[in-house]
Design a protein that fits this description.
Largest sheet: 5 strands, parallel
Bound molecules: flavin-adenine dinucleotide, iron/sulfur cluster
CATH class of the largest domain: Mainly Alpha
Strand content: 5-15%
Order of helices and strands: EEHEHEHEHEHHEEHEHHHHHHHHHHHHHH
Number of helices: 21
Number of strands: 9
Radius of gyration: 24 Å
Distance between the termini: 64 Å
Helix content: 40-55%
Oligomer: single chain
Strand order of the largest sheet: 4-2-1-5-6
Protein name: Cryptochrome/photolyase family protein
GO molecular function, one term: lyase activity
Keywords: Lyase
Amino acid sequence: MKILRLLLGDQLNSNHSWFTKVDENVMYCMFEMRQETDYVTHHIQKVIGFFAAMRTFAKELEKANHKVIYLKINDPKNSQHLTQNLQNIFDEFQIENFEYQEPDEFRLDKQLSDFCKEINIKSKVFSTEHFYTEKQDLATFFSGKKQFLMENFYREMRKKHQILMVNNQPEGGIWNYDKSNRKKWNQEVLIPPAKNFDNDVSTIVQEIKIANIKTIGNINERYFEYPINRSQSLEQLNYFCEHLLIHFGDYQDAMHTDTVFLFHSKLSFAMNTKMISPKEIIEKVLQTYRENSAEIDISQVEGFIRQIIGWREYMRGMYWMLMPSYKTENFLDNKTKLPDFFWTGNTKMNCVKNAVKNSLENGYAHHIQRLMITGNFALLTQIHPDEIDAWYLGIYVDAIEWVQLPNTRGMSQFADGGKIATKPYISSGSYIQKMSNYCNSCSYNYKEKTTKNACPFNSLYWNFLDEKKAQLSSNFRMKMMYSLLNKMTASEIAAIQEKAHHIINNLDEY
Ligand code: FAD
Ligand code: SF4
C-alpha cells in the first residue's frame, strides 16, 4: 500500500501524530504553487516566509527519514495547481491512498473535498492537531443564540481548559482586564529591541523574481526577520515571555512613531503556519507568570491569553460557522474605491502613513493599527469590503483567510451587520491622539472638524454616522453617538458633509 500525504504551506506542525513513526509506505508532498501566490497580490515577505518555512520543514522531515516530494516554484514538474500536482504523483508512484489534513481555508477545503470525490483511490482527512477547538465547535456553542459574543466563548474556554481559574472562578476576581490594556506609550518604559532573525532568503527571492510573481512591499533578503522553523518560533516565544510579556497588556493598544512592534509578540506568522501551537504558547506564558508573579501583573497575562484562546479560536469558529456567504456580505452597502496610498503610504495623514509604512516595510502592523487606523479610515470612507479584504489578505505575513476575513469584514468593517462586533469600530481623531503620538507631527489638526487643516477622521466620523443612520441608529451601543449627532445644527451637519464628501471624492489628495 502506498500512501500519499499532503502538507499545505500552513501545516508545518512537526508535533503532528503523522510524524511519530517513519513508514516506508508513506510519502509526503509539498508544493510551492502559482495557485497560492496569485489568488491575491501578497507581500513579498509573506511569500518568502511561507516558502522558506516550507523548505525548512521538508528538509527536517527528510532528515528524520520521511520520504518527501517537494516541488519548488520553478520545478519543471510543477503544474502550479494543487490537484494536478497530486494527480501527477498518484500516476507516477501508483498511489493507493491519499491523506490530507483539514485545510483552514474554505477555498482549499472545497478544492480538496471535490477532488476526493473524483479520484478512484481512497482518501482520508485528518485534524491538523493545532487548535484548541474543532472547526464546528463554535457553531454548536452559539446554536440557538441571537448574538455570538466573543466574551461568552472566551469564558467558556477559560473554564474548559482551566486557564487562569481558581475553584472555577477567574483568577484575580475578574474575567477581563481590557480596561487596563489601554495605556498610551510615552517612552516611560523602554521597549526591548524587536526579536529579529537573520535568515538569508536571497535564493528564494531570486526564484520568485524568475517566476515573475507579482508582490508588494519590501524585504531585506539577507536578514529575513520572521521565524522560519520551529526552533526560531520557540526562540520568539521565549523572547516574548522574558522581555515583553511584563508590559504586553498595558500597551496593547498604544501606537507610536518610534516603534513598530511595541510589546507585541510577533508570533502570528509562526502560529498561523503551525510551527508552534497555541497550547504551548499559553503554557509557556502561564509558566512565566507563575515564576514571576511578583513582577508580572495578571492584567498583562490575561490580556495576552484572551487574544489566543479567545479572539483567535473565536475568529476561526466564526469563519467556519458563516462561510461561504460571509465573504460577500456588505451590510453598509459601501462602494468607495481603495485609495492608492494604501499601497504606497503616500498620504499627509500621519497615522495612516505610519500604519501603511509599517505594513509595507515589515508585512506587519499591530492590532490597533489594523483596526483603528487603516480599518477605521476605510470604514469611515466607506470602501467596498472586497477591496479591503484583498488588501488585508495580501499585505500581512500572518494573513490567511480564516483569520483575516472575520477580522476585516466583520470586526473592522461591520460588513456582517454585527455578527462579530457589537458596534462598528470607528473613531474620530481624538481617539488616535489619545493612543498615539501621530497627531503631534501631522499636517492636520485633530481638534478641527471642517477647517482646511482639520483632521479628516473628524468630518468623516460624523458624516458616517449621519449616512448610516438607517442601519446603525437602532443599535443600543450607538445610542450615545447618535444623541450627540442629533444635537448638531443643520448648518454644522452640512459643513461636515461637504468636508467629508470632498475627502471621499478626492482621497488621494489627503
Ligand atoms: P500580539 O498582539 O502579540 O497577539 C498575540 C496573538 O494573539 C497573535 O499572534 C494572534 O495569533 C492572536 N490574536 C490577537 N488578536 C487577534 C484577532 N483579532 N484575531 C485572531 N487572532 C488574534 N491576525 C492574523 O493572524 N492574521 C490576519 O490576517 C489578521 N488580520 C487582521 C485584520 C484586521 C483588520 C484586524 C483588526 C486584525 C487582524 N488580525 C490578524 C489580528 C491581529 O491584528 C494580529 O493577529 C496581530 O497583530 C499579530 O501580531 P502579534 O503576533 O504581534 O500579536
Ligand atoms: Fe491621524 Fe488626524 Fe491625528 Fe493626523 S491629526 S495623525 S490624520 S488622527
